Amino acid sequence: MSIIRENYKSYGFTEIETPAMESIGNLCSKQGGENEKLIFKVLKRGEKLHIDTAQEENDLADSGLRYDLTLPLSRYYANHASELPSPFKALQMGNVWRAERPQKGRFRQFMQCDIDILGEPTNLAEIELILATTSTLKKLGFANFKVRINDRRMLRAMSDWAGFAEDQFESVCIILDKMDKIGADGVRSELKEAGFSDEAVEKYTAFLQGMNGAEDTLGYVKETLQGALDGEVSDNLSQIMTSVLAAGQEGFEIAFDPTLVRGMGYYTGTIFEIEMADFGSSVAGGGRYDKMVGRFTGNDTPACGFSIGFERIITILLEQDFQIPGEKQKVAFLLEKNLPAEKLADAIAKAQARRNEGQQVLMVRMNKNKKFQKQQLTEEGYTEFVDFYCEELKR
Amino acid sequence: MSIIRENYKSYGFTEIETPAMESIGNLCSKQGGENEKLIFKVLKRGEKLHIDTAQEENDLADSGLRYDLTLPLSRYYANHASELPSPFKALQMGNVWRAERPQKGRFRQFMQCDIDILGEPTNLAEIELILATTSTLKKLGFANFKVRINDRRMLRAMSDWAGFAEDQFESVCIILDKMDKIGADGVRSELKEAGFSDEAVEKYTAFLQGMNGAEDTLGYVKETLQGALDGEVSDNLSQIMTSVLAAGQEGFEIAFDPTLVRGMGYYTGTIFEIEMADFGSSVAGGGRYDKMVGRFTGNDTPACGFSIGFERIITILLEQDFQIPGEKQKVAFLLEKNLPAEKLADAIAKAQARRNEGQQVLMVRMNKNKKFQKQQLTEEGYTEFVDFYCEELKR
Question: Which of B341, B352, B376 lies closest to A239 in CB terms?
């Protein structure tokens, strides 16, 4: 956490903490999609609680635990915009709660690490968010990861160009999202099954198949979608990729991927994700959501964010036997029982001196089986042992 | 937080995080005293919730938000004792929730920083907890603070010796707790008002008054309470104070104070508090609670803890215009609108280079009123500005 925090800070992000509880009205305002079904709701208290006349859950609850950090940030920004710098670059590392069935790798309380830039309309936001996130992952020791980037407007253009109706867009995207698992043929079958027009399905699938052979994906898409795609969208993607590469970071690639979808309906422009070869799903994701703050204030505020899944990162690091950089040398002082006052004082003074020099010193009573005790401490990472006895002779 | 974390780590404390929610049964098990009235309760979900037949709050709620960190730690230790080292030295920095009326300096969500040592029966625990806490406060820049130390068994001996009945002990303590505000005479009046025997009240008050003149408080108390006080209790206090002083830390004093009470009923031995001249109430407090883990496991485990009130510390630091040590140099890069790609790339590369050197670099678009923008950034702590223009000539 301190590596993540330090690096984000060097990019000018300010750490903020928003409350764990939000009013039930904000949480249930249809911005959280499926997550709204998973809210832990908090009972009203005192005179406000009327058990006898309550008909439904929201008669009993006045607040709930947040299911993400984006909603509390938007609410916070809406309340404090006038006091905050513009653009406002926020870092949040906080727990969120979802009432899911707990299972391996899925918790009901988990941590999100979000960076967001509010008030920046240009792609400077995207560039900074991507650079800050990739450099953080590199500081954590990751290499050979891939940033995939796309734009919700690109997905819209592809769907329009192929001839799907406007209200079919979301359904088409949900199927396209499976492309990496089922391939272009699989996408075709599912689109057909869903009952969309053969013509649109064939045009869409041919477009996806043609993409596989193209050397320059963005060039291919630009040329193919001519007329349906606003040139600004492809120029924007191209500029973001060029600028990220210009920063000279190594060890990862960034690539345009027109099949990247990202579930959240609130995205309005660029979307991005980071995937790692040795981990199934993405480890970080984000995008631009220019319409969310406006739902609180009435005034739209450009906004863009990138979130690292903390538990996912930790899972990979633990599997790789991650060594925390700058870890202190661990020393254990073993004190025989009933050490006389002056010898105890001596041990304490020596421990303090070593702590001041940056060592981690554990003071423990010496067990009868000293050998076993030292074995256990060795397993906990202690590399040096100092014994303190009541009588000098025993040394 | 990182200063606190780093210093506690050098004492061998391991940071753990326990869940924000606990089962309602654990939270309402009478270990939290008054705090149990302030629990935020969480509604049952799905099939478990029966609104129509519910009679009382606990028919509707199956869990709640924790009101302190000691209960979750004890529950955690009870579940995992066999896998944990002994002694187990835990650091927790986490939020707790209490449904109080919010007011200045009192929040419904606030942070506690607790260190606890479980499984250490000797006063090595007290000594380490006090040294770890005082050195942390010193690293935060505090000086001239005072550690007050007492023992619940000392309070009991004073009460017994004076002639109060056993079941009057808690009430006597509640009145004694006001000694620093109302003085010995005030304590006498309140004890009399409460209807206790004149003889006991006079003996108790005379004891308190005699203490004021004594040079060596512990010596005075030991001598006066002879017969009623177990010599082990005073020897223990004396040894803790000597050992803490032996560590050679400067800038604070430690003193025995027989009027220190500490509200929590779960303390079984030593109790301590830290007070600062420029802050009304205590900023840290703790003590030994050897009977709490046993309520979960059936086996008593020696336990001792010390908790810093995070918001209190922060309040004082902010009033003193606290400078965070090791803060990065803050630089702002101002980018003119529509900067051509190669100039944007140049700015990004320069920002990355400075970030790698440890500077904090903010990249922002240049506003029309550049002078005002720089003024605002200066107020936010930015000390260097670099302008990037579309055309060289403008420089």
Answer: B341
